[in-house]
Amino acid sequence: MSVTHDLVVTGGTVVHHDGRHRHDVAVRDGRIVAVGTDLDTTGATVVDARGLLVLPGLIDMHVHLREPGMTEKEDFASGTSAAAAGGVTTVVDMPNTFPPVATAQRYRDKLDLVRGKAYVDFGLYGMIDHDNAGEIAGMAELGAMGLKLFMGQTTGDNRCPDDAAIFRGLEAAAADLVVGVHAENDHLLRLFGERLRESGRTDPRAHLESRPAFIEVEAITSIVTMATEARTKLHIHHLSTRAGLQRIVDLRAEGHRVTVESLVSHLVLDDGAYDTHGNLVKLNPPIRPAADVEALWAGITRGDIDIIATDHAPHTAAEQAETDVWKAYGGFIGVETMLPLLLTATTRGALDVEDIVRLCAYTPAQRWSIPHKGQIAPGFDADLVLVDPTEEKPLDSASLHSRHPVTPYDGWVLTGSVVATYLRGGLVHDRGEVVGPPSGRQVVPRRGSGLRPVDAPVPALGTMLTVPTRELV
Ligand SMILES: [Zn+2]
User: Fold this and answer.
1) For residue 151, which of 128, 184, 177, 174 has the smallest C-alpha distance?
2) C-alpha of residue 332 to centroid of ligand 1, in Å
C-alpha cells in the first residue's frame, strides 16, 4: 500500500484571498500537493475539518519578540507560541532590539540566537540607522525581510537618521529590499511632547495630543517623495489617521507607489480606550478618535490599505501598569488575538474572511516576495489554520501564550476561534495547546540577484547605534 499523502484535511471550507470552496487539502513533505475533492487518504493522517474554515497561515509583518536584550518582556519561544496559537505561521520581527540589528554581524548574531526557538517560521528585518548604508547589502545577503526606518522617536537622546542618512539607506535598499517606515516627524513629536510636559500633563490622553495627525502626514509626504526618487519599495507601517490615508491616496494618484499597513489595535480601539485602559493602550502612533478608525475601515473596504498587522509589542506586566504617560512604554501584545478579533469583525460585516486572507497572508507574501507562503495551492507550504467561525466566547487573557498576557481585549466576547495550526504540515497548535518541539525556520525573500551563502564574509562593523527602545513600538 503506497502512501500518497502525509496529511489530508478533509471536508473543510478552504478560504482563499478571492473566494472559498469546499475542498480537501493534501500535504506531502510539508508542501500542499493537491486541493480538491475526494483526495486519496490512504495511509495519511486525516483531519476532519467539517464545519470549519481552512485558511492559509497568517503572516504578521510587524512583531517585536524582544530578542536580543529584552527577554524579560518576551522572547522567540513565547512570542512564536502566541503566534501559533493565533493562527499566525510566519512572523516578521523588528530590529529595534538591544542592541539594534543595524549591521550584518548583528543580523548574523540574531539569527544564531533565535534559531531553534521558534514555533512558527520567521523573517527578520534589519534597520536603517543614521550611518549604516554600508551594512545593508550584508544584511540583505543574510536574508533580511526588509529594513525598518524609524523617522520619529520622542524619548532619550537616540538619534533618528537625518534626511541624508535616510536617503543613503533608501538607495542602498533599492536593489531589492522593502523599506518599512514608522512615519512620524521626530522634531515635531519632540516639540508637541515638550509643550504638554511643561503644561504638567501626565494623563494617558496627553500621548494622543502630543502626536497630532499632521505629524504623520508630513512624514509620509517626505518619505514617499524620497523613496520614489531613490526607487525604493516603500511600506508605511501602522498608518493611523484619516489625513494620513488621504495623503497616501493623493500621492498614489500622482504616481507614487507605496503599500500601507493598518494595525488591528487601530481598527478595534478608539480614544475611549484611554479612559478604560490607561497607558496599557499607549501606542506609537497613538490610538485615535473614532473618526480616524472609521476612515481606516473605509480604506480597507476601498482597497487603499494593503495589509493588516499587529505591532505585537510586549512589555512586562509592571511596565504596563505605569500611570505616568511619559514614563510608560508604547505598545502591547496582539499576535495571538489578531485572527479572532478580525473574525469577530466579519460578523458585523466590516470585512470578509477572504479579506482577512488577502490582507494578512496573500498580500504580505506578494509584497515581500516570500516564497511558498500565503496561499492554499499546490506547491505552497502547508501552513494551515483551522477556524471555527461560530464559536463565541469571552477572551481570557490568562489563556494567552505571551510572557506577560496583559491585553485590553480581556473579557471581550469574540466570535470565531482558532482550532488548530499546521506549520509546513506539522501540528504546532491544537485547541489552545502549543505543540513542540519548535520547528520554525527563517524565511527569506525571493530576490532579484543571487544570494551569497550565509557563511560568506560580511562587511566590517559600522558605527553602532545604541537606541533606547522606550518609544520604538
Ligand atoms: Zn512596531
Assistant:
1) 184
2) 10
Distance from the CA of 170 to the center of ligand 1, in angstroms? 19
- 10 Å Cβ neighbour count for 157? 7
In the reported structure, the alpha carbon of residue 42 is separated from the centroid of ligand 1 by a whole-number distance in angstroms of 46
- Looking at the whole model, is its pTM more than 0.85? yes
Whether 100 and 24 map to the same domain: the answer is no
- Measured CA to CA, the distance from residue 5 to residue 47 in angstroms comes to 12
Residue of 359, 471, 462, 362 whose CA lies nearest to 126: 462
Residue 443 in grid coordinates: 524565511
Q: For residue 182, how far is its CA from the centre of ligand 1 (angstroms)? A: 8
pLDDT band at 2 (very low <50, low <70, confident <90, very high): low
Interhelix angle 213-230/163-173, nearest 10 degrees: 50
Percent of the chain with pLDDT over 70: 93
CA of 39 to the centre of ligand 1 (A): 42
Does a structural domain hold residue 271? yes
Residues 49 and 118 both lie in one domain: no
